[in-house]
Design a protein that fits this description.
- With 495 residues, the protein is mainly α.
- 47% of the residues lie in helices and 5% in strands.
- A five-stranded parallel sheet has the order 3-2-1-4-5, sandwiched between helices.
- The structure holds flavin-adenine dinucleotide (FAD).
- The site of flavin-adenine dinucleotide has 27 residues, from helix 9, helix 11, helix 14 and helix 16.
């Protein structure tokens, strides 16, 4: 069982290095600094050529607006946020010296690249006699603290969730009462956010993102309030219906740390008496996030290598044209195209549809899960190394606690079940909007004359399906049988 983190009282000016924690509420690094005296706040746009996962386009858009929002909150408190671009190992010590900091404080991160970077930065600071404090708040429980009975990391969700759920998850800390800027900061220069050029060059794309999101802590709190009031009660059932606003849409806010998982955890638990099933399901999803981060912390190669080595030599195809059609939402399978176009328009896709488009890519098209992951990384506003890699490995069947590797989602059955009236499809594939419910899920099965009644000619107004679903499923099972030969288990069943 874990108790709340306690820190010795500090004194003197502090430098707080902010990363994915652009919030005032439950920000232990800010809380600690505020209690110890004057402070300066720093955000670094990292430029490390060795970083295999530089920010994708949608993440850069989000970061720009999230920083704008945080800067404006801080300005109202007379606090400046220093912006710098480059290598933290150099920038953090330089600024700490310039402002005469007694200590540098940052909230812990657990991604492998961040762990190495933080270690190097800490060493550089300590070598100069500057103390470093690293409280935790990105996750409910530190991945190093949750262990199986034999002391190892978890590989299976259910026992992990049980172990995590029984930990004493610290209560969130409130916003600091008062924050005072260190006087020595007055002459220190900061980059201008506009000079970082984080916004995309294609304004149309940014327009869709702007219409869908309000990055920043105020936007996060607004989304949380909407979800608690309107959606939590029905969450257990509604979370699977892509046409409904049945999920929290908090994922980008959570990735950028605009709202804290501990705040969400405790406030959700407090509502258990009102809507028990919604609460339990939502808490379980927060634990899936924990699990993904736990897996990544213990398997640093998860974004590139299958967690199950028997998938290492899987015969993936290379087919750029097929991949491009998938990315553009031109596969000819309406639910897939709706999902991929939602991703492009909003920078986000409903979880059920992420699973359907993912299965189509890796099973029906036999294209590598890493390619799908890379596209999501570039286009999702919630792109998150751990959640993305865990999601794709789960879909491909090569993850730790993955879907059975022989499961091939049937997109037509999924669409009929989870979007029966085709509302989601009509929203994102408007060229099919006129079709009746019984034809919208698989228009190629409708007689051409019937299609013509609604003014739609396949091949002209909407593509024919790029693969035959039954044949491509059989091809996937044949390829997967190579894996099953190695395990001795036959491919079976379909969803
Ligand atoms: P809600 O249903 O409201 O859930 C609340 C929170 O729980 C989410 O915001 C998220 O932080 C967490 N969560 C929910 N489901 C999952 C899950 N399956 N795994 C991990 N955490 C979860 N999520 C990301 O945040 N970033 C990604 O890059 C990402 N890539 C994915 C790729 C694939 C192929 C798949 C199948 C899933 C991926 N997910 C990813 C998980 C999930 O789809 C999103 O977290 C969810 O759709 C976000 O919407 P929401 O905030 O409304 O979720």
């Amino acid at each position: 069982m874990l108790g709340p983190m306690t820190h010795p009282p500090l004194s003197g000016p502090s430098l707080v290095w902010l990363r994915c924690d652009l919030r005032l509420d439950d920000n232990p690094a800010l809380d600690l600094a505020a209690k110890s005296g004057p402070m300066a706040l720093l955000f670094i746009l990292e430029e490390d050529p060795a970083d295999p996962w530089p920010l994708g386009g949608a993440s850069r858009w989000w970061l720009h607006h999230s920083l704008c929002s945080f800067e404006s909150t801080l300005r109202s408190l007379d606090i400046k946020l220093f912006l710098r671009r480059g290598t933290p190992q150099q920038i953090v010590p330089d600024l700490a010296i310039s402002m005469g900091a007694r200590q540098v404080i940052w909230n812990n991160r657990h991604e492998p690249h961040a762990v190495a970077r933080d270690k190097a930065t800490k060493m550089a600071l300590e070598a100069m006699g500057i103390a470093v404090h690293v409280p935790s708040s990105a996750l409910l429980v530190d991945p190093q603290h949750v262990r199986t009975a034999s002391g190892g990391p978890f590989r299976v969700f259910t026992p992990f969730a049980k172990a995590c759920g029984s930990c004493d998850i610290p209560q969130p800390v409130p916003c600091p009462d008062a924050m005072v800027m260190a006087p020595a900061c007055a002459d220190i220069v900061s980059d201008r956010l506009e000079d970082w050029k984080l916004l995309p060059r294609t304004p149309d794309w940014a327009g869709g993102l702007r219409d869908s999101w309000q990055p920043g802590e105020a936007g996060a709190l607004k989304a949380w309030k909407r979800f608690k009031t309107d959606a939590l009660n029905d969450y257990a059932a509604a979370r699977d219906i892509p046409a409904q606003n049945g999920t929290s849409c908090l994922s980008p806010h959570m990735h950028w740390g605009e709202i804290s998982p501990r705040r969400l955890w405790h406030e959700t638990q407090d509502m258990a008496h009102i809507c028990a099933s919604g609460v339990q399901k939502f808490l379980a999803e927060l634990l899936w996030r924990e699990f993904a981060h736990h897996l990544l912390a213990h398997n640093p190669l998860m974004p590139t290598e299958p967690l199950q080595p028997r998938f290492k030599h899987f015969p993936w195809r290379q087919d750029k044209e097929a991949f491009d059609r998938w990315t553009r939402g031109q596969t000819g399978i309406p639910i897939i195209d709706a999902g991929m176009r939602q991703l492009w328009q909003m920078g986000w896709m409903h979880n059920r549809v992420r699973m359907i488009v993912g299965s189509f890519l890796v099973k029906n098209l036999l294209l590598p899960w890493q390619d799908g992951q890379a596209w999501f990384w570039d286009t999702l506003v919630d792109a998150d190394l751990a959640n993305n890699a865990a999601g794709w490995q789960w879909i491909a069947g090569c993850g730790a606690d993955a879907a059975p590797y022989f499961r091939v989602f049937n997109p037509v059955l999924q669409s009929t079940k989870f979007d029966p009236a085709g509302i989601y499809i009509r929203r994102f594939v408007p060229e099919l909007a006129a079709l009746p419910d019984d034809s919208i899920h698989a228009p190629w099965q409708a007689p051409p004359l019937r299609m013509a009644e609604f003014g739609i000619v396949l091949g002209r107004d909407y593509p024919f399906p790029m693969v035959d679903l039954a044949q491509s499923r059989a091809r996937a099972l044949a390829a997967l049988s190579l894996v099953s030969v190695q395990t001795g288990k036959p491919p079976q069943s379909r969803l």
